[in-house]
Amino acid sequence: MTRWSDLKEIIIATAAALLLVALSALLASSGLVAAPPPSDNRWLAEKFLTLTYNAERKALWAASPEVVTSILWDYRGIDTVYETSVFFFAIIGALMLVRSYKPARGEKIEGRGMSVIARTVTRITLVAIPVVAASIALHGHLTPGGGFQGGSVFAVATLLAIVALGTGFLVNRGWSKGRLLGFRTLGLVIIVFVAIAVPIIGLMDGGRAYLVQNQEKPWSGYGAGYIYSVLGLDILYSGTLLFLNLAEFLAVSAGLTLAFLVMGLPREKLYKGGDVE
Amino acid sequence: MGRAAKAAALAVPLTILYLVYTGSWSLFEAVIGFAASFIVGLLFADAVVSRPSKLYSPVRWAWALVYAVLYFTIIELRAHAQVVKLIISPGGMKPGIVRVPYSVETDYAVTTIANSITNTPGTVVVDIDEKGKKMYVHWIKVEDETDEGARRHVSMVFEKYAKRIFD
Prior knowledge:
The structure holds two protein chains of two kinds. Chain A is an all-alpha fold. Helices cover 62% and strands 3% of the residues of chain A. The longest helix of chain A has 28 residues, at 177-204. The two termini of chain A are 51 Å apart. The mean pLDDT of chain A is 86. Chain B starts with a helix and ends with a helix. In chain B, helix 1 crosses helix 2 (27-48), helix 4 packs antiparallel against helix 7 (156-166) and helix 5 (107-117) packs antiparallel against helix 7. Chain B has two domains: 3-55, no CATH class; 90-166, Alpha-Beta Plaits. The interface between A and B is medium-sized, with 29 and 35 residues.
């Protein structure tokens, strides 16, 4: 049972946490740590554009007409060096994940997979990452992201599962080569269908529309609409964009997962040939 | 427990994750998020949840909250103070690997203990013996070489809460 010393610790910790929150709120509201973004920061872009390759003001130039590279490796070079070291550690993480293991003499290698810690954390990410991927794909027409980006994120989850839990984890739950190829093809079929949908509607109406046409043009009055009103809500779906993003999400998720799965197969399986199962 | 029931149980916390990530709290987003989370649940829920009722136990959640508050304040502060002391006092370090037994049952509890130990810089679980229920911990300053002594120093607090939250 909880003893008095436990309770005391809990009370002190709660007070400390509340103090931290209050302090953060104070700092944020006073504008000390998080000043509201200026409504117009074009002057900064203006500076970079006029200074990077300005031979008349060599005190501030980077001697390169390529502005982005100038910013990355010159004006904020130290940030980039830091990022590179972060990437270095990411690679170390990847090498740790797929490291080889040399069994001691007489030790059985079977069943000696990742530790329970790695497997448990991978299981959690296995459901968390696809949810984030779905959000990226579903909001592709509203915010940065889209079907390809969402599908790539989804494949990170399955790649981790393959590395930490083994190819058998996915294969045993029915993720066969045939099925994954099927979902990838379904995604492509939906994309083709959406691409020709508006022109076909145009042809049936006796008019003309472009392949992959999304919205109406002054000279081609066929479009996929953009607002769907339901239950008093006006939902912006941006015509064909939402459907193309979802189909792309499906195709990329299944396609990349299949590629990783095939790459992760044991060598004997590849020698024997045949399907993933 | 059926597959759909497990998926639905897991979909609620996943929907919250979806909304936090999306940065929108409208009912419409919640409905879409729940649908997406339910599909993810259908794909993978059985690998994550064994007994959905545990996911909705208010007692477990209360202990998780208590632990989170403790962990990120007092425990964190103590761990870092200890390391600061080690850094400014030369020769204070006495690194070594100790065997730490544990008595929790679920994978989540074991993972919680292992990941909690890591909050002291330089102290980290390097291997785990699942059958013998023992962790091998690299300890930055070995104060007790016996199994139970190391357990008392390194993982006792974490184990207590991990058991209440997950077991």
